[in-house]
Design brief:
The complex is a heterotrimer of chains A (191), B (201) and C (203). Chain A is mainly α. Chain A has nine helices and no strands. Chain A has one domain. In chain A, helix 3 packs antiparallel against helix 8 and helix 4 packs across helix 7. Chain B is of the alpha+beta class and 201 residues long. Chain B is 35% helix and 25% strand. The N and C termini of chain B lie far apart (58 Å). Chain C has eight helices and two strands, in the order αααααααββα. Chain C has one domain. Classes of the chains: A mainly alpha (191), B alpha+beta (201), C mainly alpha (203). Chains A and C meet through helix 2, helix 4, helix 7 and helix 9 of A and helix 2, helix 4 and helix 8 of C.
Chain lengths: 191, 201, 203
């Protein structure tokens, strides 16, 4: 039950983009077309789930037992950077079509604060292993949901008459604001 | 060849320098950081169990810790339960004070919450919510009074006030409190909590 | 090498190349911590600390680092200073540290910092890098200050925790909610672009 609560909460209630403001750069940058938004979302979900596992292992097996808490930030960022590299090489070897779809988005993910944020939140909340995995997967799906919705709206926005200074990032943020309000309707689902 | 050697040397030395620098910073700040955490808990116990001079940790589990408040003579005068549970938006962490026989609550303090500002966040508000939690009869499950009332006199002994417009946040706190009182009662029954096992100081 | 004067090197970060308003960098912390002025200010200063010291170190050792491993080295240097800032806040300002939560460690992935190392400190002298970092930091702090002032005054009727609006004022709760963060920044970006266009067309 607890796991279901974490999962739903990560997707809808405490959405990574709309509640924690993590992953704003790709959310604004790669949301012009639905196709690319879906690929980006899947790439992020994939890396997030792996990151949750790896950062959990590092934190609970290496950092905490040895009292190396102060190396958390350095080790997490290095692990994430190398992880993304490995995932990229692995996908290129194993599945060229998948690489074609996700390839260009993977390097962008290294500097995506959603991934680092996930690793930090898993450590901060002292999640167990299963909770960490579910939280990683849920957060990734939440990000995917938000970016796809955003892309769908932006495809329509192209046809709208928007004041000149608000074109681009301005109107996207205002749309995000309305989405965040709508997502508030999900609050209280988890009891 | 020369380049790859340089790469390894540079990365290793950057890593080593940063590591040793951080180790120094880590050691220098460790004591203070832990002291801060301890002080926060201490301050909360003194607030929720009136008359506390010192405290001991009696039981520790994930999201559920029990502290004992002691008076000047070192006799246990009440429990402070530090507990987290799911609220309206996110986790709510609170500390509940009870008397030693677990029949009355002494006070409730919210340690951390991320409820809706202006609505659910009022669980931190003294006049709207917190003051109603003093001296409630917790020998049975506490219940919420709906709709909200203005004064404590209107409430029955085991009732607390609902916050207008934030029923779910109020219910969440109520649920956390009732569950943790029940859990503590169970622990005492099983003999898992005895007086003064380990000292916080 | 940059051909700007020292003064221009500093002021470009305030407006023309303002990291948030013009370059759209560092949006996560800008949105996340600006519900209250004190948090915005703390976040701005912590980020400035990391940016300034990383820029100094990177510009000193830039010649020693082979270009293949430069990003990795920069990340380690940045992460080191972020940890220092995080520990310092946790030790001396525990309340602020708790409020900011994971957003202090997240300075490490703030694109402003890595961006300045890659675009500026790795190519310029220590002095110029320092001035560039000071300018960018001031631009970032000022933006956070403007945004958090708007959000705190409208959202809770207070400034730095003191009541500034009269009792007639009903706080716009939306402004301290996530939705208000997006809305305020979106409008602020629009205003900045509008002012920029107005001044450009006059010249």
């Amino acid at each position: 039950m607890e796991l279901v609560a974490i999962f739903i909460s990560a997707i809808l209630v405490n959405n990574f983009v709309l509640y924690y403001f993590l992953g704003i750069c790709p959310f604004l940058g790669v949301s012009k077309k639905i196709d690319s938004a879906i690929s980006m979302g899947l790439a992020v979900t994939f890396v997030m789930t792996i990151t949750a596992v790896v950062s959990w292992a590092i934190n609970n097996w290496i950092l905490i037992p040895h009292g190396l808490d102060y190396l958390k930030i350095v080790s997490f960022i290095l692990v994430i950077a190398s992880l993304v590299q490995l995932v990229e090489m692995f996908i290129r070897k194993v599945s060229p079509p998948l690489y074609q779809a996700l390839g260009i988005y993977l390097p962008l993910i290294t500097t995506n604060c959603a991934i680092m944020g996930l690793a930090l939140l898993v450590a901060l909340r002292e999640y167990g292993f299963a909770e960490a995995v579910v939280f990683g997967l849920g957060s990734g799906l939440g990000f995917t949901l938000a970016i796809i919705l955003m892309a769908a709206i932006r495809e329509q926005l192209d046809l709208a008459d928007i004041p000149e200074p608000l074109k681009g990032a301005g109107i996207s943020l205002i749309v995000a604001s309305i989405m965040a309000l709508a997502f508030m309707g999900f609050i209280g689902m988890i009891k | 060849m020369k380049l790859s050697v340089q790469m390894v040397v540079v990365l290793t030395s950057v890593g080593l320098l940063s590591g040793s620098f951080l180790a120094t910073v880590g050691i220098l700040t460790k004591e203070r950081v832990e002291l801060n955490k301890q002080r926060e808990v201490e301050a909360a116990i003194i607030k929720v169990v009136p008359g506390t001079e010192s405290s001991t940790k009696l039981y520790e589990a994930k999201d559920f810790k029990v502290y004992g408040g002691k008076n000047q003579d070192g006799t246990l005068i009440g429990y402070g339960i530090l507990v987290s549970g799911i609220g309206f938006q996110d986790k709510i962490t609170l500390m509940l004070g009870t008397d030693i026989s677990l029949t009355k609550t002494t006070r409730l303090e919210i340690i951390e919450q991320k409820e809706t500002p202006g609505l659910g966040a009022k669980i931190e508000d003294e006049d709207v919510f917190l003051k109603f939690w003093e001296g409630r009869d917790c020998s049975q499950a506490i219940s919420l009074r709906k709709p909200a009332v203005k004064t404590a006199e209107e409430l029955a002994a085991s009732e607390v006030n609902t916050i207008t417009g934030a029923t779910i946040s109020s219910e969440s706190v109520l649920k956390i409190v009732n569950n943790s009182v029940e859990k503590l009662r169970q622990l005492i029954k099983e003999g898992q909590i005895q007086d003064g096992e380990q000292d916080v100081h | 090498m940059s051909t700007r004067s020292i003064g221009q090197e500093f002021t470009k970060g305030l407006w023309n190349e303002n990291p948030v308003l013009r370059q759209l960098l560092g949006l996560c912390p800008t949105l996340a911590v600006t519900g209250w002025v004190i948090n915005g200010l703390a976040m701005g200063l912590a980020t400035s600390f990391v940016l300034i010291f990383s820029s100094i170190v990177v510009s000193i050792i830039k010649k020693l680092i082979p270009s293949q491993v430069r990003i990795a080295s920069y990340i380690v240097i940045i992460a080191t200073f972020v940890t220092v800032a995080d520990r310092f806040l946790a030790a001396y300002f525990p309340d602020i540290s708790k409020d900011l939560g994971p957003y202090v460690p997240l300075i490490v992935v703030n694109c402003i910092i890595l961006g300045r190392q890659e675009a500026f400190s790795s190519k310029n002298s220590v002095g110029r890098s320092l001035i560039d970092a000071l300018g960018m930091s001031s631009g970032f702090v000022l933006t956070l200050l403007v945004l958090s002032s708007i959000r705190e005054i409208l959202g809770s009727g207070t400034y730095l925790g003191h009541q500034v609006m009269g009792s007639w004022f009903t706080p716009w709760i939306i402004m301290i909610l996530p939705a208000g963060a997006f809305l305020a920044l979106g409008i602020l970006l629009g205003i900045a672009l509008h002012i920029e266009k107005k001044t450009k067309s006059r010249i």
